[in-house]
Amino acid sequence: MAASSGEKKLQERVPLGRRAWMLVDIVVLFLLLALLAHRAAALMQHGGGAGAGAAWSAALVCEVWLALMWLLDMNAKWSPARFETYPENLAERIDDLPAVDMFVTTADPVLEPPLVTVNTVLSLLAVDYQAAGDKLACYVSDDGCSPVTFYALREAIGFARMWVPFCRRHSVAVRAPFRYFSSTPEFGTANRKFFDDWTIMKSAYDKLVRRIENADESSLLRHGGREFAEFLDIEHMNHPAIIKILWDNSKSRIGEEFPRLIYVSREKSPGYHHHYKAGAMNVLARVSAVMTNAPIMVNVDCDMFVNNPKAFTHAMCLLLGFDNEMHSGFVQAPQRFYGGLKDDPFGNRMEVPFKKIGVGIAGLQGFFYAGTGCFHRRKVIYGMAPDSIGAGRGVTTIGSPSYKELQNRYGTSKELIESARNTFSGNQLAKSVANSRIEVAKEVAACNYEDGTHWGQEVGWVYGSMTEDILTGQRIHAAGWRSVLMDTEPSAFLGCAPIGGPASLTQFKRWGIGLFEILVSKNNPILTAMFRRLQFRQCLAYLMVYLWPVKAPFELCYALLGPYCLLTNQSFLPKASEDGFSILIALFLTHITYGFIEFMECGLSARAWWNNYRMRRITAASACLLAFFTVPLTTLGLSKTVFEVTRKDESKSDVDGGCMAHNKADLGRFTFDASPVFIPVTALAMLSIIAITVGSWQQVSRYAKGSGATGGGPGIGEFMSCTWVLLCLLPFVRGLVGKGSYGIPWGVKLKAGLLVAMFLHFCGRN
């Protein structure tokens, strides 16, 4: 699969210059070190007055943490690169394009409505690829085992027989119907045929939507016929494997061929851990191996549709365009979102991290696996090392493995072992879908199939974290593979970002728990770099991400120092008359300006910058804090990990191309519920208000008595710190007096008030 020297290049690595940014990086680092030196000197010499005590020591620890994180951030951004693709040069090798198995995962028909999944599947079925009907197969994993989801996919096939030819005939750019029909194109007199086709397709899609939305589970089970017999009398967490071939091109007419579609609901049993999405992905890898066995696999979340019909061609340029396949173990497209709320009020679109940190990491050993929009080589998922790397440093290579070795590694299925053997030998040919293989597929989809094998460890998606994606990517990099970031125009895939405070913070909390689980486990990147082939700078890049939830105690401590000092008449910042104050102000302004210009350079607004900055502070005091305490409790067996699925909103064509929430009034405004994630940040908002009020009253009283600002009491720095925190928490300040979904529930207020009372009691004793 490597490109020969005589062929036209399919891709090119382009280093990106950022000398001006490097200079600012060094300036910020210098200011951080200067602040640390000033604070350390003040503590050693006791020159900080009454403030040179516990508060200054705590501040020093927090600032050391900030300096460490800045160094890791610099490492990630220091060597940016992008990869240009030349799909026009692929024409000479078009007949040699490998087959691709496409995976779509959904887990809950309520939180992830079937209409969302259907649009993603339709966009995959309509993708541009040579001999797509023979070379592409789409597998939909339904972890909810929902007859409604199965019904929606079955109905989608009838629409696909019209939709796919329509897209090819008229070169449709966006092939997810809900997006395509979100606006009406302009029809000229010469486009009468297109107008007629468009009208027919729009009517057919509207009928499809109504059928899916009106589908009732109980009615389907009673009147759906033999196709729904396997869904009768089952529990969603306790049922046998259900695998059905919905489309195999055997009934297609000329020009109607499109990828095969297979429905998969793996076996579930209360006695077996199902390992969330990682378990579902491993089942898809095995089922596809015994049914189609394509050498390339691409996986997308149920709400992440194909936005660029040439996406697969661009990916092949990167997978086939290197002389050594080691350089493209997997190809990851950046996560982008469609029709988002103006100015990203919940800070979850991640545009700047992908554009700044993403291209930086792409210049190292390669971008992380993000869990969706990723093309994998099957041999990589099977845990094989690159052909150019021999054994050593913890990398297992199997030259000509015996049948017993393959059985221990991959399980007892003869068909799966044959797939692995062919993958090892490089003689990997895709198969045509056959009903005769369904029973074999059910065998490898059984919940006990992985017992005694390497699945979930050295093979497939790795278990042990709710962020199985980044952990699996680390396993692949540790084996010696590199990865490539595929940033096309238009974006290869688009998804829907969570809407509202509860959904956003739930997602952040899940990520935080997963990342912290990796950090405290045997999969820690430092250990991986020491004993395997994870490069040092790539190790630091992973470490930067895994430390994200660990920022919670440091940021919260720094945020609490201001209220603490105002309430106890102390200080933790240099006074305005001291040299250290100018260092502090320069650092604050430089850092703020740095982030602001990054957003401007990415074409975003000042308000988007503020919303993202504010949400980082809110997330640290809420989602990250809960994640930080949840993992130790889970490790000690005092709590259980609960995987919370983020709500995906219905894909409607009548919403100006955006994500449609169930309550339109909530769009763009911070909403609240009774989740514990809101308690700590609500308490911080309350405490900041009390501290500013008490501190201001004390200052007024002193001046009224003629004493002015004396001793080591709080100065302007402490007031500025508290005010800045309060500005960041403004949505929660509004929530304290808001009503309905815009108001913080009384239960959360009472618990937050109890935390505030405990903090005030602590301050009173000091």
Q: Could you explain how this protein is built, in words?
A:
- This protein is α/β, with parallel strands linked by helices and 766 residues long.
- The chain has 27 helices and 12 strands.
- It has an 8-stranded mixed beta sheet, sandwiched between helices. The chain has a two-stranded antiparallel sheet with strand order 1-2. Strands 8-12 form a two-stranded antiparallel ribbon.
- The termini are far apart.
In terms of topology, how is this protein built?
Elements: E1 11-15, H1 19-45, H2 54-77, E2 81-85, E3 100-106, H3 114-125, H4 132-135, E4 136-142, H5 147-169, H6 177-180, H7 192-213, H8 217-223, E5 242-247, E6 260-265, H9 276-291, E7 296-301, E8 305-306, H10 311-320, E9 330-332, H11 351-362, E10 374-377, H12 378-381, H13 403-410, H14 414-425, H15 438-444, H16 468-478, E11 483-485, E12 493-494, H17 501-519, H18 525-531, H19 536-546, H20 551-568, H21 579-601, H22 606-620, H23 623-635, H24 679-705, H25 716-728, H26 730-737, H27 746-764
Parallel strand pairs: 3-4, 3-7, 4-6, 9-11
Antiparallel strand pairs: 1-2, 5-6, 7-10, 8-12, 9-10
Unreliable spans are: 1-5, 47-51, 391-398, 653-658, 660-665
Cα radius of gyration in angstroms: 28 Å
Mean pLDDT level: 89
Strand order of the biggest β-sheet = 5-6-4-3-7-10-9-11
Question: Could you say which overall geometry the principal axes of the C-alpha atoms support?
Answer: globular
- The structure class reads alpha/beta
**β-strand amount:** 5-15%
Share of residues in helices = 40-55%
Total beta strands: 12
Largest sheet, if any? 8 strands, mixed
Instruction: State the end-to-end CA separation.
Output: 69 Å
Number of helices: 27
